Description:
This protein has one domain: Fumarate reductase/succinate dehydrogenase, transmembrane subunit (3 helical TM bundles of succinate and fumarate reductases, Up-down Bundle). Helix content is 81%, strand content 0%. The chain has helices at residues 6-11, 21-46, 52-60, 62-90, 94-123. The model has no long low-confidence stretch (mean pLDDT 90). Its main location: membrane.
Amino acid sequence: MSLNTPISKVRGLGSAKSGTHHWWMQKIAAVALIPLTIWFVASIVQMTQADYFTVKAWLSSPVSAILMLVYIVTGVYHLRLGLQEIVEDYVPNKGPKTFYSFAILFGCTIIAVACIFSVLKIAL
């Protein structure tokens, strides 16, 4: 027996009234990471014997730089969603939950900005 009303089942809303948006975003990010990770690993494997200037030239190409930035942003977004889900599911008190949520957002933002800056510094 479900505690949801029939209309909430149709709308996809749970008890928190937020629906499945968070779940869908995490799954979409995960699916997007599959080809990006294959591209990244294949690129790194091809450059195992490359020197610094070869890697810099590779990352300076627009396609590589854009794919790397998309990979970073998608990966950090997926990380944030996963960590947020852990906090929401396993931290019972509101005070620590709020602190951890802000810490996750701040930490992921710092990671994303540092990675984006690094890619742009090499690529430009």
